[in-house]
Hints:
By secondary structure, this protein is of the alpha/beta class. It has helices at 15-31, 52-63, 76-90, 106-116, 132-139, 159-165, 188-200, 258-271, 277-288, 292-314, 336-342, 346-357, 383-399, and strands spanning 39-40, 99-103, 122-127, 143-150, 156-157, 170-176, 204-208, 233-238, 250-254, 321-322, 330-334, 359-360, 362-363, 374-378.
Amino acid sequence: MRKFSPRLARIGTEDAFSVMIKANKFEREELTPQGKKLIRLQIGEPAFNTPKHINKAAIRAIKDNQTHYTAPPGIREVRESLAKQSSKMTGVDFKLEDIVIHSGAKPSAFYTINAVIDPGDETIVFDPAWPIYASVTNYLGGTTKFIPLKEELGFQPDIEEVKAAITDRTVLMVVNTPCNPTGGVFSAEVLEALAQIAVENDLWVLSDEIYDHIVFDGDHRSILNYPGMEERTVLLNGASKTYAMTGYRMGWSATKNERMQYAIERLQTNDTSCPPAMNQWALKEAVDSPKTPAAVAEMNGEYLKRRDLIHGLVNEVPGLSANLPKGTFYLFANAKPICEKLGCNSAELADKIMREAHVLVLHGTSFGPHGEGFIRFSYVSSEEDIKEGVRRIKEWTEKLGL
Length: 402
Ligand code: PLP
């Protein structure tokens, strides 16, 4: 029998994609014949079109024959723009040499974790979390230590639990703020304490700041701001969320650690060689154009309105309650009373909500074990869909006698 590597059995996935396939089949086979549709409140991407000036830059780049390989870490001018933007957002003086541009932000996580994790090593992940950090750690033979994000602390970790989880095999800590799926933002005190733990235990830090522009109260705060962070941190960022550019697949790593920068670049050379040339020019336009701030502010203004709308509506649903999200476009709702009433877990609950209320949401456990009893709503959808989706769930829970 020809073999497959046992590693493959350990790689995870993103349920956001598999749930969508299941939902499309359900809608096609069960609902469409009855003239009904699902309301989709699970989507993890902006529902807005990419701003026109950014699309024009991509078209211009193709017309200018920017259709060839670029240097593996990306085009110098684009890296320079990203260095400036990353410096502005984090307070660290990034130079173009510190930047590697990728096909999406996802490779930044894949390459960083590949660069540091060996079998038996441990990664600290605050849970619930974007599933890729644990998936890649486990794939490499490492172990993921899940530290709960506490709903009662506004989805922040208890620092004593973080300290207690560190062992002599802990190599990496992943920090994602603003956080997918909780919509939480880590406080200055939590970031400072995490930075101290990283320094004291000589850990690498992967700081996923892909939602850095979608913060509703005050400015974005980065762990890179704290002493000792520069040489041990990889900043993960990308264009997908801020500029509604998911299909462009543009992201980047920024690190002041030269060996880490070299490792990420090497891994990329072995993988995709370089990111697509024309998309890099579109990314430069997104970051540099004077038209961009207004376009981003318009989208964020809509997210803010929809956040307030969904937060109010969800809290009126019997059996559901939710913190007010401080960033991102997700609301993580506590559905434990409904799970208890039905005797089901959060995956079964999300499936029932799809089949019986005809609304698509994601189950909390698709983001880790501490997501049990929660469901994630995304509020990128139109106000109309948000109102109708939550109305359907409310009607359904009322019928359950909640
Ligand atoms: N990090 C987080 C927390 C995310 O939610 C996502 C996308 O959903 C990414 C990284 C990756 O984004 P992309 O690869 O689309 O740039």
